[in-house]
Amino acid sequence: MKRIYLDHAATTPVDYRVVEAMLPCFHEVFGNPSSVHAIGQEARRIVEGVRSKIASFLAAKIEEIIFTSGGTESDNTAIKGVAQAMKDRGNHIITSSIEHHAVLETCKYLEKHGFHVTYLKNDKAGLVDPDEVRRAITGKTILISIMHANNEIGTIEPIAEIGKIARQRGIFFHTDAVQTFGHLPIDVNELHVDLLSASAHKLCGPKGVGILYVREGTKMVPFMHGGEQEGGRRASTHNVPGIVGLGKAVELAKETMGEEAERLTSLRDKMIRGILEGIDDSVLNGHPVKRLPNNINVSLGYIEGEAIIMYLDREGIACATGSACTSASMEPSHVLAAIGLTHDFAHGSLRLTMGRATSEEDIVYVLKVLPVIADKLRSISPLYKKGR
Amino acid sequence: MKKVLVAMSGGVDSSVAAFLLKEEGYEVTGVTMCLGVKEAGKTSCCGRDAIEDARRVCDRLGIPHYVMDFSGDLNEKVIAKFIAEYARGRTPNPCIDCNRHIKFDTLLKRGIASGFDFIATGHYAKIERDQQGYSLKRPRDRRKDQTYFLYPIRYEALEYIIFPLAPFTKEEVRQIARKADLPVADKLESQDLCFVTRKDYHTFISKRTGGMIESGPIVDVRGNTLGRHRGIVFYTIGQRGGLGISYKVPLYVVSIDAERNRIVVGEKKDLKAKGLVAGDLNMLVRRWPSLVYAKIRYRKREAVCEVFFENDKLKVLFDEEQEAITPGQSVVCYHDDRVLGGGVIEEVCPDEGGVLNGNY
Fold it and tell me: Beta partners for B137?
């Protein structure tokens, strides 16, 4: 059976060129970058080479890049680290209702430890209103954290505007850019961000490695204590193969980012149009234009998400739903609830996220299969007519 | 290859059901019904641990596993009725409603619509096919016989259901699980309902009824007040302890009068009744013999009775008086091993007159 993978927001296949770049780091360049000898120094040079590559990719300074184990660690480090460092100045944090759990749960944890968090309401398309951010700021606000683009509905937030507000008020600003890093151009100065989280495995890199960008002058206490790696900001022996893989993934993404975004945007719009026109009672979730090029999120009324997922999976199509129980949390998607979807529509949500291997043919196939499945699941009654 | 969707609770029975089907050559897919039980760490058949266990079993068997959310259905079709029935002074059986509305209706329909040929569960029951059609029958292991809970399956659905455990005893099922090295072979059986544990029963009902529970009088069969009850929802017919009354002979709850918020107690003999009237019927056999066996609670022995149909109701008249016939529970009728059908008990008829006059 042909397999069509449409869950790139969850993770992506590692590019074979990335794997090739990583391989020497297991046997040949196996040194510990903290070691003094030549073998260690070689590993160190490689790690620092990647750091400078990523710094230039983000228009950041070299020492502003910290290697981490991925998006979740970066979010935790940024939010807890700044909160802890700034607690004498204030205890108020502003975030939005549709952030990734790595941000929301970290904020909830901080609420139990004396911090106050404002969860801004996103509009129906998932957008944060910069004016709302402005109004939410108090004398005690120490950190604002708003994601660059949402992982479920693909909405791209007005980060530059929010960043400007934060900058004017002298408040540190963090963005979770896990979904945009390597997919959309990011310039940390144009976006006015002080902290930015990213992960390698969303751009055909390996799992278990990511970065946290921390602008020079940002007050942040370390999350991991131990050795002096990363300027004392993140202890732990460097994941050299992972870091090299991340570097290669960024290099590859940089080469094709512009045209890939264009290609995916056109496929995305074709798919969205095809679904909305081909299936009754279907709606698009998220913003029609301010949207990740690879993200399609629709709700099909009167259908259970898990049923569609199972059916599609059996047809070789892998995708996701925001319905309850599919995630470990057993809760329906907080994102779909936050943008005002009723229980029924949240249940019937379907997320298709494309990647480098996605072709026009795949889209045509999905558009052929999906309406049939929708029909079948909606008219479940044939069961009782069949053969009697 | 025929495709079958197995409802897997993470317990030994449904795990072995999946194993057996795979051995028989079916293309098997596991599904765990998420019923919205959120309390972590509790042994229940539908919580997070259950999902994890089912997943492990499916990994072991090398079959795909999915989780489907039925919490909305459970709330609407089972729990709401469970609470309403208690408030009416009845003792509902939510497992029967779950089978009626969820497992053998929504799940079944969803499975067939998704391209499966059958759905299967780990129930101890048997479906047989002959020239006359399909019949639901008791399984080999009489002690585990679960046909009482399965009578509401619609006749039309029988051809789409497989009960792979029909020819096995529980002990054999455990042995099969051990031999197959299924990670749940020695798991304890849950005695709780999916959505509430025994311990939390009262809190759950209090919360769901939201202050509708009021204490009231406990009276004897002649109407003399003997004490106070904590709310009728906490009592069931036949219940002996927990009344807080000292009396010369043991007292039992003999009826629950929701209208007047009273619990009526009496002696053991007052529990006896000749018959009952049931509604919400499901018929698995069109023509019934007039003399059948009827079971009025899962753990009760079936008894010989005569049955009459009037309008949409079934009247059952026992040869020998039965104890603690309880409205809200189901009556299920059998002829030999075959389930004829059943319904939900609505009225208790103390004597023949009540039944024959039809004055219920």
Answer: B126, B338
With an 8 Å Cβ cutoff, are A310 and B29 in contact?
Answer: yes
* Stated pTM of the model: 0.85
Contact A326 B36 (CB under 8 A): no
State the smallest CA–CA distance between residue A229 and chain B in angstroms.
Answer: 38
Could you tell me which CATH class the domain A4-10+257-385 is placed in?
A: alpha beta
Residue B246 belongs to a domain with what CATH number?
2.30.30.280
ipTM surpassing 0.90: no
A310 touching chain B per CB within 8 A = yes
Number of folded domains that form chain B: 3
Tens digits of residue pLDDT in B102-142:
999 999 999 998 889 999 999 999 999 998 899 999 999 99
Catalytic residue (one of A25, A204, A319, A325): A325
pLDDT digits (tens, 9 = 90+) for B245-283: 888 888 899 999 888 999 999 988 899 999 999 999 999
B135 phi and psi angles, rounded to 5 deg:
-140, 150
d(CA A154, CA A174): 18
Report chain B residues whose CB lies below 8 A from the CB of A377.
Answer: 110, 113-114
Residue B289 CA to residue A71 CA, distance in Å, equals: 69
Angle among Cα B274, B276, B279 to the nearest 5 degrees reads 170
Of B29, B71, B115, the CB nearest to A324: B71
Per-domain boundaries in chain A: 4-10+257-385, 16-252
Between residues A138 and A303, the one the model is more confident about? A138
Amino acid identity of residue A182, one-letter, is G
Q: In this complex, which of A306, A380, A388 lies closest to B113 when CB atoms are compared? A: A380
Catalytic residue selected from B194, B305, B333, B349: B194
Q: Do B66 and A310 touch (CB under 8 A)?
A: yes
CB-CB neighbors (< 8 A) of A305 in chain B = 69
Q: Which CATH class is domain A16-252?
A: alpha beta
The angle formed by the CA atoms of residues B56, B58 and B59, to the nearest 5 degrees, is: 65
User: Are B15 and B72 in the same domain?
Assistant: yes
On whether both B12 and B69 belong to a single domain, the answer is yes
Do B148 and B89 lie in a common domain?
Answer: yes
Name A371's Cβ contacts closer than 8 Å, sequence gap at least 6: A278, A279
What is the CATH number for B128? 3.40.50.620
Q: Is B208 contained in some domain?
A: no
Active-site residue flag, A325: yes
A190 min Cα distance to partner chain B (Å) = 44
Do B7 and B133 belong to one domain? yes
